Each structure stands twice: as structure tokens, then as C-alpha cells.
Amino acid sequence: MLVNQLKMIPLSAWFGLVVIFLTAFIALFAPALAPYGETAIVGAQYEPWSDQYWLGTDNLGRDMLSRLIFGARNTVGLALFTTTIAFSLGAFLGILAALKAGWLDMLLSRLIDVLLSVPPLILALMLLAILGPSIPNMVGVIAVIYIAPVFRLARAAAQNIVVLEYVQAAQLRGEGTFWIIRKEVLPNIMSTLIAEFGLRFCFVFLFIAALSFLGLGIQPPTADWGSMVKENATLITFGDYTPLLPAGAIALLAVSINFVVDWMLHKSSGLKD
Amino acid sequence: MTDNTKQLLRIRNLRMAANTANGPLEIIKGIDLDLQPGEVLGLVGESGAGKSTLGLASMGYSRDGCQFTDGVVEFKGRDILGISSKERRALRGCQIAYVAQSAAASFNPAYKLIDQYAEGPLFHGEGNREAAETDAVDLYKQMRLPNPEEIGFRYPHQISGGQLQRAMTAMAMSCRPDLIVFDEPTTALDVTTQIEVLTAIRNIVEEFNTAAIYITHDLAVVAQMADRIMVLKDGQLVEEADTQAMLSDPQESYTKTLWSVRSIEKRKKPLPDAAEKPLLSVKHVDACYGDTQVLHDISFDIYRGRTVAVVGESGSGKSTTAKVICGLLNADKGAIEFEGNQLPNCFKDRTKEDLRHIQFIYQMPDTALNPKQKIKDIIGRPVKFYLGLTGAALEKRVRALMEMIELDPEIFMNRYPDELSGGQKQRVGIARALAAEPDFIICDEVTSALDQLVAEGILKLLMRLQDELNLSYMFITHDLATVRAIADDVIVMQKGKVIEQGETEKMFKPPHHEYTELLLSSVPEMDPDWLSNLQKQRETEVT
Q1: What does pTM read for this prediction?
Q2: One domain for residues B243 and B303
Q3: Which residues contact B14 (CB under 8 A, 6 or more apart)?
Q4: Are the beta carbons of B326 and A184 separated by less than 8 Å?
Q5: Domain that holds residue B104
Q6: Given an 8 Å threshold on Cβ–Cβ distance, is A169 in contact with B432?
Q7: A270: pLDDT strictly greater than 60
């Protein structure tokens, strides 16, 4: 059964899965895998690739490879954390709005509309300028911004479910709202949400990289892929592509996640080519 | 049999297969079929018997994922499986037409009826737009549609389901085809509307001497329409005979079981004592949807251990009454009393105990069960929720409940609803209601989505459970045969009012209220002359 299912996975999704698992592995075991410490200055500035520094060193003389490995942990870990918060809250509120309808739905939906009406990057820059750039603030701000699309999706998907008779049956049984959300509605919109999770995770991850690039995200000396590009950008003008490696890692992971999401959407919607 | 060239449709050894995950599955297993010009053939069988597939095959069409594997289909002596799809298109709509089950879903809602009517004749080069319009009005007249001059200029959503079905038959007639395939054209309609559609179809088929294949699962209906009946089961022919012979003397045992469906024996129950208090009383209830009042002064009592059937056409307020009893819709006036205590209007204000006493079984078993929960969880939840059983005690109770509804716990406990048939799902729905150990169960059209044989099984189960557990049922239905079979008392509703109520036996004996009479006389009977007689009778009454 499982073997058959594995055989059904298309090549692109396999590629995506391998990259995601590899990234997860690297992120989890970063201290063991990295040849040097995350912030340790181990050599001269901008050293070229060598046996000692496989990918050279950065603008302060820190080992690029080590920072790339630790960067996976920070960037991907934070993105995962942020997306999870946005999803838990967004999905809960979305289903709640669909289930309760009436004034609660109206209130929540309009609040979400307010969030959606401001471009996300501008909103994030504004909020971070007010709150000050720090990791908890960044996580909070991005999570709030991404609650909006998740809320809308969860609400739309849940609206199709809450009218069904098994939800009515649960309500007539006297079940509590939380139970109905968790047991009756959530399992039925889970595949949609998971597919969306993958997609949103990509956006959040790029968002964090973008904020870090602008200097408002993860603060130095913490290694992350976005700020690594920024810090070493000057090297690009000398024809060295090392600073592009973190950007490449971002692109690779984003593409991989999209491959997997495509496959999952394909599976959950039951569409055939 | 007869001369091949004269024959309209000739199917020999037809085999068709459907693609499934486990390879091709044969769904039509070598069927022969002959149809003479002007003849009406009835195809009868349960769902999954291959009726619709065979009906479509006679037009040389196979559904997506199905294919012809063997056999020939000849229309007027010409093999229509071998010809190109362009040639087949020239035949379809012009010489062979199709009338689908749900007219509402088959019309394009964005175009007026007349536009859709004219499409066929224009495509097949039979005259121009004006000719088509005049012709349409003629046919609408013959189909006895109201305002035949204007009705064509309306959109599908502006006319009723019965009228749509007739408009669709008129559309199928537009090119005066030699053969029309009717696929369950009246299944979705009320008995009273069904009569109008049946009469219209029969008249027009006779008028133009069109041959027809009439697909249905309702034997009484097919008895009115067909000259000859074929009974199908699992893609095979069970029996074929002229209507008269088939009705009076079915040969095969399967056919006999189909025929006997409408004959559940009911034990007569004594009337409740005058001293006995009703279990549930509905007292002078008015209710509204928004500003429209849908229930007017509804009052009735339901006694312990009895079945009360609520009958009426769609829109008569049957289901709305059930909603008010459950507390899903607030009554504006009046009260619902359970064992003498008034229940709060809204279900949210009722106690857990109040909710436990009144359970609901739904019409559509597909949407009544959560597809992501296992059967044991679906049945187990009310047990846990109301009775507080857990662990081994819970499992024991679930097993006992599954045995009550005649599903083997070993096989079904860990399955999901998708892995069950419609009838099995409905049984799980019953078990979920029973799990709460209620006194009163509302059954909302519980058999209307099921085949006759399966429905009979469900009804028998409900009757047995009533005897064992002394339950009361409120049985909402539009099927009077079911009412006669199982109900102790009947309530007839029309336009949100109770027209008549009383014991079943009295209700089925004249004199009736005018509307009850109309409902009763509209239930098709097995007598092939029933429709003609009724038609004559109603015409004389009018004049």
C-alpha cells in the first residue's frame, strides 16, 4: 500500500521532498555539520574557496559554509515558526467565522479586510519601524500579516463544510464550538490548508529574507540567508558568485516546496492531467 | 425476431467496461436489445444495474472512463459504434434525443428556453429561427405548459421543476426524432407534478409515434409508460416481457422481490389511552424565514411508540416543522412540549438531556456522516457524550449498536463512510441516533435517496427497532406508499398548514380532504391503465 503510494509520487515532488528533508536535516544538526562556529571569525575577509574554507569567508572573515548551514536553521526555523502561528490563528478564526456567521463573521472579516488593504511589505516596514527590529517583533508582525490570507481560505473552505448535515448533527447533539471546529470541520479542510501551508511557508520565508536584506529582520551577527546576501553583496561586483549561494539556497527551497505543494494540491483535488 | 431493416434499434451482445483503480470492470455484460419504431421500452433496475449506461449506449455514447468492449449497436440497420464521431453527431439530437434526470441541471441557466430549443434544429439544418420558435410554441402547447407563447422567453430558473422537465421533452422533440431516451425524468419530482410530466410525455410520444427507452427504478411509473419492460441487474438482463405479462406474472425471483417491495406488513397498534400523555406536542406553531411566514398554526401530538408520517409536496413545510421541533428554527408563536415540559425555542438553550431525547436521521447519508471519522467514532461519540462511557464499555456499546443495525462490527468498525454503500451509511445514521438512547426520532426523507430494495431494508429495520425500544418516529416523506406501509398516524401538510390529520387507516379511506385526495390519487399504481383512467377521470371532473 505505502510502496504503491510512494511509486505514485512524481519526480518533481521527489526532488522537492529530498531537498526539504536535506534542509531539515542540516538545520537540525547544524552545530555538528558546520566546520566552524556561526559567528566565529576564522580567517581574513573575503578569502577565496579553499580546502580550509570550502566556500571562502565573508566580509568579516567568517566561514561562509558554516554560516550557510546555520542560516538554514535560523531562516527556515523562524519561517516555520511564523507560518505555524499564522496558520493556527488564521485557521481557527476562519472556521469560527464560518461556523458562527452573523456579527462575529462580519467583524472578523472586516478586520481582515483592513489587514489586506495595506500592502504587506509596507505594513511590515511600518510596524517594525514602530516596534523596533527584533526577532520576536518580526515573527509577530509577519504572523499577523499572514493571518489574513489563511483566514480567508479557511473561512471559504469551512463555509462549504458547516452547512453539511454532520455538522448540524454535532450542533444538535450539543457539542461545543471548539469540538466542532477540531473534529468535524478541520479534518475536512485539512488537505486544502496543508497545501496552502506549503505555499505560505515559502512566502513567509522569502519575506523574512527580504526583511533581513533590508536590515529589519534577523539582526547580525545571527546568520541568515537574506542578510548574508546583503552583507556580501559587494563581492558580486568583483565577479564572485559566492554571495549568491544563500540566494540560491532560498530559491532552491522555495522551488522544492512548490513542487511538493503542487503534487499535494493535485492529490487532494483529485484532478487528473 | 423480425426483419432487421424495419427494426429501429438493435443491440447485440453489448459489453462495456469502466476503468477503475483495479483495472477495467465490466458494467454491461452482454445485453441484447430490440426496439421497433413507435415502441416504448422500460428499463428497470436498482442503481448500478447499468440502466443509464445502456440507455446512453443506444445513442452510441459512453461516459468518461467507460468504453465499449464488444457488441454492436445498430440504429436503423446502421452500426453507430463504427461510424465517425462527426456522423454520430449528425444523428444525435436529430434522430435520437435524450432527456436527462435533472432538467434543472441540464439547462444552461444563462440562456432562455427558446434559445436552447432552437439550437438543435438550427445545428441540424432543419429550418430557421422563426420556424423553430413557432414549432416550440406548438410543442409547448402539446406539453400543456402554461402560457406556451411566452414561456420560451423565460430563463430556466424562472419556471418550476415539472415545467422544466416538460420543456426539456419538448426540446428533445424539436427535430422529431425516431428515438428518445428518457433517463429517470420524474425521479426528482413530487407525485402531483410527476403525473403532469408522465401524461405529457406519454401523449407526445404517442402523437408522433416516437420510440422511447424509459429508464426508471419505479415500477409503477414504468407500468404506465412502457409497452415492454426489461429488468436489469449488475449489467445483465434478468427478465424481459410485455408490460402486462411482466406485471401479472413475473418469472424470475429477482423480479418478484422487486415487485414485492411495496408490501411491508405492518402490525396494527392500538390507539393510545385517552389518559396517556403525548410524548411530544406541537402547539399552534408559527414560523418565518425572514419576512415570509412558512408555518401557520401547526398543532399535533406524537405518542410513545407510534410513527407519525408528515406528508406533502416540497415546500409544504414538512422539513421546516422538523427544524422547529429540533430548535434549529425559532417558532414565532406557539410551543413545543416534550413530556409535558415546554422546550426552549433554540437548541442552544436546551439542556443536554432535552437534546438527547430528540434525535434526527437525515435524508442524504453522504452528507450526514463526517467522511473523516471512522464508523466507530461516529457511533461512539453520542455514547461518550451523553452517557459518558469510555474505553472498553464504549467499544462494547458501539458493537451492540452495530449489531442492532445489522452491520458486522468486525468488518465495519474501522471503516470510513466512503467505504460503505448508501444503505449501509443510512444504517450508521440510524445507529448514531440510537446511540443517544432517544425517545423520539425525526426521520427526514430517510429512504428517498435509496433504491427500493435497500429502502425496504431500512424501513424494516426502523420498524423492528421501534418494537424493541418503544421509539416514536416523525417520518417526513412525500412517498405515500411508505406512509401506508409504516405509519400509525398521518399529517397532511400544504403551504405551511396542516390540512388533515388522523390514523393512517382512516386517512387512506374516503372521504378525503381535496388535497389529500389529489396526493393519494397521484401515487402511481402497478396497473398499466391507471394513468389513462386517472386522466379521463380528472378531465371529466374539470368539465
Answers
A1: 0.77
A2: no
A3: B28, B30, B31, B32, B33, B54, B57, B68, B70, B71, B72, B73
A4: no
A5: 9-262
A6: yes
A7: no
Report CB contact under 8 Å: B381, A173.
yes
- Domain residue limits at A247: 13-269
- What residue spans of B124-227 are helical by DSSP H? 129-142, 148-151, 161-173, 191-207, 219-225
Closest residue on chain A to B435 (Cα): A173
Residue B1 is predicted with a pLDDT of 44
- The CATH number assigned to the domain holding A106 equals 1.10.3720.10
CB B516 within 8 A of CB B499: yes
A184 interaction partners in chain B (CB closer than 8 Å): 370
A247 occurs within a structural domain: yes
User: Would the CA dihedral through A247, A253, A254, A259 be positive or negative?
Assistant: positive
Q: What is the pLDDT of residue A272?
A: 39
φ, ψ dihedrals at B58, nearest 5°: -70, -10
For residue A253, give the C-alpha cell.
527551497
* A6 lies in some domain: no
Cα A270 to Cα B15: distance, rounded to the nearest angstrom = 28
Compare CB distances from B370 to A173, A174, A184 and report the shortest one's residue.
Answer: A184
Q: Do A166 and B370 touch (CB under 8 A)?
A: yes
Q: Is A101 on the interface with B (CB under 8 A)?
A: no
Three-state secondary structure call for residue B38 = coil
Report the mean per-residue pLDDT for chain B. Answer: 84
In angstroms, rounded to a whole number, what is the distance separating the alpha carbons of residues B490 and B25? 45
Give domain status of residue B296, yes or no.
yes
Which residues in chain B touch residue A174, judged by CB atoms under 8 angstroms apart? 347, 350, 352, 355, 385
- In chain B, the residue whose alpha carbon lies closest to the alpha carbon of A184 is B370
Residues B231 and B310 in one domain: no
List the single residue in B352, B362, B373 with the smallest CB-CB distance to A165: B362
Q: Would an 8 Å CB–CB cutoff place A166 in contact with chain B?
A: yes
Name the phi and psi angles at A260, rounded to 5: -65, -40
- Is residue B294 over pLDDT 80? yes
Q: For residue B340, is pLDDT > 90?
A: no
Per residue in B482-516, pLDDT tens? Answer: 888 888 889 988 888 898 888 888 887 777 788 88
A172 touches chain B (CB under 8 A): yes
Answer yes or no: do A174 and B436 touch at CB < 8 A.
no
Residue B528 lies in a domain: no
Average pLDDT for residues A67-91, to the nearest whole number?
Answer: 90
Q: What are the residues whose beta carbons fall under 8 Å from the beta carbon of A48, sequence distance 6 or more?
A: A56, A240
Contact B436 A187 (CB under 8 A): no
The per-residue pLDDT for A181 is 93
As a whole number of angstroms, the distance between CA A193 and CA A198 comes to 9
What are the tens digits of pLDDT across the range B4-39?
A: 557 888 888 888 888 776 777 888 888 888 888 888
A223, A76 in Cβ contact below 8 A? no
Q: How far apart are CA A12 and CA B77, in angstroms?
A: 53
Say which range, B235-249, B282-296, B525-539, has the weakest mean pLDDT: B525-539
Question: Which of A65-74, A124-133, B253-262, B426-435 has the lowest average pLDDT?
Answer: B253-262
Interface of B with A (CB under 8 A): 326-328, 347, 350, 352, 355, 360, 362, 364, 367-373, 381-382, 385-386, 432, 436
At A18, list the grid cell: 529530498
DSSP letters along B282-342, please? Answer: EEEEEEEETTEEEEEEEEEEE-TT-EEEEE--TTSSHHHHHHHHHTSS-EEEEEEEETTEE
Task: Give the ipTM of the model, two decimals please.
Answer: 0.77
Predicted pLDDT at B430 = 93
Other beta carbons less than 10 A from residue A266's beta carbon: 15
- Of all residues in chain B, the one with the smallest CA distance to A4 is B21
